[in-house]
Amino acid sequence: METKRFKIYAAALSPVDSLGNLKSGKLGEFCQYLINEGGCDGVAPFGTTGEGNSLPFHTRKNLPRLFSQLGFHHSEMLFGVGCPALHDTVELINKSLEYGYTQVLVLPPYYYKDLNPEGIYSYFSKLVETVNNPDVRIHLYHFPQMSMVAIPPDIVQRLFKDYKPMICGLKDSSGNFEQTRAFVEATGGKEAGFYVYPSSEEYIPEAIQIGCAGVISGSLNAFGKYTRDALNEGDVLDQPFKQVVAARHLTQRFPLIPAMKTYQAVLNKDRSWENVCPPLVPLSVEEKKRFVFGLEELGLLPQ
Known about the structure:
This protein is of the alpha/beta class. Helices cover 46% and strands 11% of the residues. The protein has a single domain, classed as TIM Barrel.
């Protein structure tokens, strides 16, 4: 099974203080860790796992400069930039482009619900026409459980046909692999130049087979190295990959963002990692005990 070109991106956590203010220096260091020791090909900051929609607009706007100063390559970055207001999204994209970062991840306009699919098409088509920069690479962000706005495969197909290569991919966080398959079939997937990424490591074998480009996952904040090791083995059906799937299944028993922050707090002996932005709350004492015990049973924490 071909695994060498299959990319893994961590949907990077955002370290914050007790009031929910971003610790930008710590974020930069953490993303460097994810790409180096953490085993990831790249990071996707300010998405759902990064609490992007809980962070102030000015904070999100200023972060491309930090990543540029730290020397992150444009291929390693996929900035979450989606906003309900089209021109806010445009401003975030332009700020990323100012520092040479061309890859962005864009939610549909998520305030209004029960949208006519033509409205979704209109939002993204106007986004492309307003940005009007052939270097930008827009990845659609399909997460209907959170946004309450699904992006139908036929709309994705039209957007790709009408605006490629600027619209070039999609992250599918639906949790339904048949939905992921539908996006690949509608667009032709990686072989046609459309890069589909499911959001869970457990789908990697099937994702490779159907022509996905990689995976973008929140649990790669903790398990990126184990996932990369399994991919490097060349057979993702062997024991190393079974450990990755078991880790993902353990994590899914808890709220993902507080669980991943708990992992970092325990790993680094740094309680400040447990801070989350309102309205999220950290794991309870009992949840933390069960999660840490499960990690230890799987051999995923230093003794």
